[in-house]
Amino acid sequence: MTRLLGKTAGGLFWMFRLLERSENTARLLDAGFRIALTRSDAAQDEWNSILTTTGTQDIYFRNHERVDGKLVINFLLRDKTNPSSVLSTIEAARNNARAVRASLTREVWEATNIAWITLQEALSKPVRERELPAVLNAIRKHSSLVRGTMHGTMIRNDIFDFSRIGSFLERADNTARILDVKYYVLLPTASYMGSSLDNVQWETILSSVSAVRSYRWVHEGKISAPSIAHFLILDTRMPRSLAFCYGKIEDNLGYLTRDYGICYESHRMVNSISRSLNIDSIDVVFENGLHEFLSNFLGQNTALGMQIEEDFRFYE
Amino acid sequence: MPLHTQYYDEMFGHGEEVRPPYANYHDWVNAENLPRLKKKSSEAENYFHSTGITFNVYGNEDATERLIPFDIVPRILSSAEWSLLVRGIKQRVRAINAFIYDIYHRQEILRSGRIPVSLISRNKAFVPQMIGFDPPGGVYTHIVGIDIVRTGENEFMVLEDNARTPSGVSYMLENRETMMQLFPELFSRNHVRRVSDYPKNLRISLEACAPPACTGPPVVVILTPGIHNSAYFEHSFLADQMGVELVEGSDLKVTDGRIGMRTTRGLFPIDVLYRRVDDDFLDPLTFNPDSLLGTPGIMDVYRSGGITLANAPGTGISDDKSVYSYMPEIIEFYTGEKALLENVPTWRCSEADALVYVLDHLDELVVKEVHGSGGYGMLVGPTASKKDLKSFSAKLKKYPENYIAQPTLALSTVPVLTRAGLAPRHVDLRPFVQVSPNGISICPGGLTRVALKKSSLVVNSSQGGGTKDTWVLA
User: Using CB atoms, which residue from B49, B227, B261 is nearest to A5?
Assistant: First the structure.
């Protein structure tokens, strides 16, 4: 088995985290834009919560005085001062890809490079409202292409493991943040309110993780707060749920442990986090407090990322 | 098509007859139409963009990545022409290795008086740490690029030897790949020899030079100065194609008399370092103490047999332009044969008579800096302005030993695709040579550089040159 540089493992990990992040940002924008078009009264709140979810409020208010849809859209899509903007993340992902080029198949590299070339062009000028759906589509399409080449062409070794771990750590972080920003609309008491605003919020949560359709399949159209929380936290079939992401991280860290013949601290951590997600009923989560559960999870997820960086000598 | 008949054209010679190696291609291109060729040309550009075959431009804030222009008309060499080149290049490369060995050992050639001592004693590329040291496998120049120009039927000359870290091989490989994507039909009509084995062969040839301390299968890695280096694409491309790791100085560390790379599982010893950094940036303890790029202590490990450096440090003494002017003597001294490939006639301005001649004929000559490269700091007499001639002549008088001069060569041309159709442009050729204890081999092909500006003789990419796919027919 060949030896992988710690720096390369780190490059792969971050390349895929960043690609995942750009896709997630696009998805959030899509959900926000939908609200702005259909419920202008709720739009302002929605843009605010998107800024909170992406953790970019501080940077946003450095250059903007108020929250405005057009400004937020461009800030999240193409602002270079925002390290989480689609343009920043895709560029950083591509730079990482360049640095680890020799660990990627030609197909993965080219898909990443073309994504960067295309999106850089599409985001070179401010994006107008009428262009937004096409731009968001392009982001989704290019992420899918990279993912597709990855699955179709990469050998399943440590290179693949680090890439996957990066994707799923980022995805879990994203889903948990979306839920945490809106945890109050998911509290069981909220269901009793039964207001139409909550319905919109629930739909938005689902659409920001591309889960409207799959939720309908599973729950046959009956929408309720606890079942949404269950779906996005505990359902192991839902590819953006916390349990699903952790199942994958556990698998890939497990392969690394097996291949390297060493038991890592990060592996122990992921097992423990996984266990906390391996429960049947969401009621336990609500009993202990949804918000507490999510912020605890986010902290553990970050800690796991750091432990992986240390265990596998990314920056040594 | 219009023709500068004063120059030898590789497709048409001096006349209108199509030369045999191009016959097949000529039939094909005549049956094509200009719009389709132009469309193919822009497809080629897209292809290069998406594969990321770029070079970084220095001094640019955004570190812009640029494409080297690619021309879709291949440069074609017959099998007989190629054999001629192969024999001459092998002889030359054998002599270069013998010369470097001699210079770092008994210095017989200096003792014999065949070349002046000052050529070496004043040479900045001389590395004292190499004195008396035998590199693993006896190889100094694992990879050499010999720049060849052509002036007529079977008239090939060596313009320059690149014995340090020659670049451009990724273009040889990617130009071919691009041509096969664009014009698969051409490759079923012509028996073009394969270049795609180059990375695999290079790996085998480097493995054959493993150091004494290597016990298992040799671990080869490529050392790059980093992602901002202008040739970074090539470094990562080669690492990918050879199936080896790409490292920077900071990924390496001296450990127990070996060089270890920092892997996900700790330090792992490496055996052969194909380094794409200059001597100066290899080891701050030995060379440039200000360099942050190098690995402290690597030279000690090298000297004690813990690692192979390819190319060996100090090979630069064989490829500056004043040493070049002695290559015919050097070849004869070490091989006992006359040089099969001629040198371009060269005036060494350090010699008083030569300087007088050069100053008198400046407007006819090409003047180059002895240590220069990349087409920088050179004067092309016939196209230079009065002002340039004057200021260059002042420089020559002040530092004559820094310059050599050569006649303006009637470089051969090969057609390129222009907006108006095919038109001749000047070319040169860099074949890539691999040296291992098992022998010298040359990949059948090379990098053809082409001056895209009409009548320009400067083919360097930094000066507006492009590249072509180079075919060697079976």
Answer: B261
